[in-house]
């Protein structure tokens, strides 16, 4: 002020300036010299450290927390470089005097060089604010939003799961018609909608093909879809006339608000003649896929959606020639923003024709034409996004039905070759991986029984014959010319082969004749439908079945890793390995069956024998067999499930 030298009238003197800075709401701390000794801190700065004395002390000495949390390094960097630095919403924790738990705050601050009048660097000025409330509010809002998003995603996942439980996971495998289906959930919010499909063999032998679409998404649409699908299946089984069945479906839809305006296309295919009877109610027309100039859409039938005044079922007829492919689909496949439905239908016809000829994505494409057309049409046409569910169902009449399988087995050494040939034959039919694995195991057991019990040491030939019946049921006979021997009252370790066969087939019977025994195994085959995303292809042929091998790893316990098939030709080798690794049962073992491609009853016998000969009984054997593995289901069947341990 006027009384102080160097200060003009109206200006604050140093004492007044110190008073202002001391009361300034933002924190200010000034550090001087190379040691960054604090020479000034206002009340806001002191409040941050809860009254701890740090003025007159070097930064690293007064506030050691700032060293580990990177604050001291930031301030020191400003002093060393002469360049300012900023920290935005740094999380800082400090221990209050006498406290046991650190206090956490968030701070935003600037560190600026403090220069003397001659321009030399004197120290560092730090100024800033606590932003704890703002940051915590934002973090809480973010956490709430993330929780809401997770709840939404869980709800959407539940809807998708519901949709998938209402859709068929498999299609029948038939000798005269190949089938495939893909369903892709809407990409916009992954909320399952009302699309559905079906392929079912009717009592008169015709094949019913169905694709439908309920308006909307979510649980209500999925529930309405499930109702329409169930009602239509029943009507098709009990009402031979297609027009009558659809009229009754329409009447049902009219009484269910969520089902009104649903669309549906139904095709009845005579697999012997190729004759088609079809009707579409507000639904896109089916596409007959053939050569470049021969692919065509079936003629319209003119009916409107279900449950509306325009719903008057009309039935038309056509003929599907052998090797022609019939494609039913929902409008989600051909409707895109900025593109007319006509353009979408034209693009689908061109693409499906190219996919049938394997000209779209030939490398690694499915060999089956129906799988290839479904997969590639869905993949290519949804690349730019799709706001609705996408469903496709393909059927192709086979020009030549698959030939039956015939093979003769003379010894156990030929079992591996039998499994490979059977696996290739089943995959060519379109059977899924579960069917392939189950039938390979069941047939191996049946053949092993004939070799061991029918012929014994005499040797002989076992004949295996398999064919796919019109119903989609596989019938396999295993016959020998040996003599049936009734099992003993106490089978001991044996007698599990028939239980394994029974568990892996729908039906089996044994016919004991004077000139031999015939075992007949039956199982309905399934072709996987692709639901939601990804791809499901039949299991590869078992040409790649690894040879049987064991590897012993010392440890506590000793581990025996088994790979390949454990059957009558390899079970004794497994038993010998277990005896050797356990020092004749003195040591407990951990047996890893993850790599086992088949666990026949002979292998089960070896495991039971080891347990009974082990010094500590059942506790002497721990088995690793992941859920869903080949070995796991057999172990649970034969009473060894309690020995399975996590990997």
Describe the protein's architecture and organization.
Residues 560-647 form the STAS domain. Residues 530-557 are annotated as: Disordered. Residues 138-165 form a coiled coil. The chain has 647 residues and is of the alpha+beta class. The chain folds into four domains: 14-130, PAS domain (Beta-Lactamase); 160-397, PPM-type phosphatase domain (Phosphatase 2c, domain 1, 4-Layer Sandwich); 405-532, Histidine kinase-like ATPase, C-terminal domain (Heat Shock Protein 90); 546-645, Transcription Regulator spoIIAA, CATH 3.30.750.24. 32% of the residues lie in helices and 28% in strands. The strands form six sheets. It has a six-stranded mixed beta sheet, with helices on one face. Strands 2-1-5-4-3 form a five-stranded antiparallel beta sheet. The protein is flat.
In a nutshell, what does this entry contain?
The chain has 16 helices and 28 strands. With 647 residues, the chain is of the alpha+beta class.
What distance lies between the first and last C-alpha atoms, to the nearest angstrom?
83 Å
Helices, by number, come to 16
Question: Please, what is the oligomeric state?
Answer: single chain
Going across the major beta sheet, what is the strand order?
A: 13-12-15-16-7-23
Beta-strand content: 25-35%
Overall structural class, as computed from helix and strand content, comes to: alpha+beta
CATH H-level superfamily of the largest domain: PPM-type phosphatase domain
CATH architecture type of the largest domain? 4-Layer Sandwich
Nearest-integer average pLDDT: 88
Q: Which runs of at least 5 residues are low in confidence (pLDDT < 50)?
A: 533-542
According to CATH, the fold-level topology of the largest domain is: Phosphatase 2c, domain 1
- Name of the level-1 CATH class of the largest domain: Alpha Beta
The residue fraction in helices comes out at 25-40%
- Biggest β-sheet, characterized? 6 strands, mixed
| C-alpha Rg (nearest Å) | 38 Å
Q: What count of structural domains?
A: 4
Overall geometry comes to flat
> How many beta-strand runs?
28
Domain PPM-type phosphatase: 177-397
Pfam families: HATPase_c_2, PAS_4, SpoIIE, STAS_2
Domain STAS: 560-647
GO molecular function, one term: phosphatase activity
């Amino acid at each position: 002020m006027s009384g102080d030298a160097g200060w003009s009238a109206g200006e604050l003197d140093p004492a007044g300036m110190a008073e202002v800075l001391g009361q300034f709401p933002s924190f200010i701390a000034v550090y001087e010299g190379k040691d960054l000794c604090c020479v000034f801190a206002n009340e806001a700065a002191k409040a941050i450290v809860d009254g701890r004395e740090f003025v007159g002390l070097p930064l690293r000495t007064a506030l050691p927390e700032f060293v580990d949390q990177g604050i001291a390094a930031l301030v020191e960097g400003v002093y060393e470089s002469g360049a300012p630095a900023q920290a935005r919403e740094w999380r800082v924790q400090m221990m209050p005097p006498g406290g046991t738990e650190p206090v956490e705050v968030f701070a935003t601050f600037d560190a600026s060089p403090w220069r003397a009048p001659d321009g030399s660097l004197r120290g560092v000025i730090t100024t800033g604010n606590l932003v704890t409330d703002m940051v915590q509010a934002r973090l809480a809002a973010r956490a709430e939003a993330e929780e809401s998003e997770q709840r939404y995603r869980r709800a959407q996942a539940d809807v998708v799961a519901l949709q998938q439980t209402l859709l068929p996971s498999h299609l029948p495998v038939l000798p005269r018609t190949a089938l495939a289906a893909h369903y892709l959930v809407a990409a916009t919010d992954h909320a399952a909608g009302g699309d559905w499909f079906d392929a079912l063999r009717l009592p008169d032998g015709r094949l019913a093909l169905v694709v439908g679409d309920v308006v909307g998404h979510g649980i209500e649409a999925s529930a309405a879809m499930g109702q329409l699908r169930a009602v239509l299946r029943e009507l098709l089984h009990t009402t031979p006339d297609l027009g009558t069945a659809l009229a009754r479906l329409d009447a049902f839809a009219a009484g269910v608000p969520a089902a009104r305006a649903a669309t549906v296309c139904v095709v009845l295919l005579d697999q012997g003649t190729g004759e088609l009877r079809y009707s579409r109610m507000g639904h896109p027309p089916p596409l007959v896929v053939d050569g470049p100039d021969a692919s065509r859409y079936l003629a319209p039938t003119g009916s409107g959606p279900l449950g509306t005044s325009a719903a008057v079922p009309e039935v038309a007829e056509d003929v599907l020639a052998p090797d022609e492919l019939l494609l039913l689909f929902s409008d989600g496949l051909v409707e895109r923003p900025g593109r007319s439905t006509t353009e979408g239908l034209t693009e689908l016809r061109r693409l499906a024709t190219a996919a049938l000829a394997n000209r779209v994505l030939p490398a690694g494409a499915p060999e089956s034409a129906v799988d290839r057309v479904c997969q590639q049409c869905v993949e290519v046409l949804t690349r730019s996004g799709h706001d609705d569910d996408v469903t496709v169902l393909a059927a192709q009449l086979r020009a030549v039905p698959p030939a039956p399988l015939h093979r003769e087995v003379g010894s156990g050494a030929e079992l591996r070759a039998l499994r490979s040939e059977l696996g290739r034959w089943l995959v060519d039919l379109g059977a899924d991986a579960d069917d392939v694995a189950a039938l390979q195991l069941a047939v191996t057991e049946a053949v092993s029984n004939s070799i061991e019990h029918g012929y014994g040491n005499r040797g002989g030939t076992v004949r295996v014959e398999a064919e796919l019946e019109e119903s989609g049921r596989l019938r396999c006979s295993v016959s020998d010319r040996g003599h049936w021997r009734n099992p003993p009252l106490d089978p001991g370790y044996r007698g599990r082969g028939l239980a394994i066969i029974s568990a892996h087939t729908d039906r089996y019977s044994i016919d004991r004749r004077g000139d031999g025994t015939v075992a007949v195994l039956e199982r309905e085959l399934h072709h996987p439908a692709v639901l939601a995303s990804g791809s499901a292809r039949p299991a590869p042929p078992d040409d790649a079945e690894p040879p049987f091998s064991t590897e012993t790893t010392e440890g506590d316990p000793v581990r025996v890793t088994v790979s390949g098939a454990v059957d009558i030709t390899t079970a004794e080798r497994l038993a010998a390995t277990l005896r050797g690794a356990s020092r004749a049962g003195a040591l407990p073992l951990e047996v890893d069956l993850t790599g086992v491609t088949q666990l026949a009853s002979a292998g089960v016998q070896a495991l039971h024998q080891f347990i009974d000969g082990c010094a500590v009984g059942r506790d002497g054997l721990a088995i690793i067999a992941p859920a869903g593995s080949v070995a796991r289901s057999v172990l649970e069947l034969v009473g060894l499930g309690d020995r399975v341990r996590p990997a």
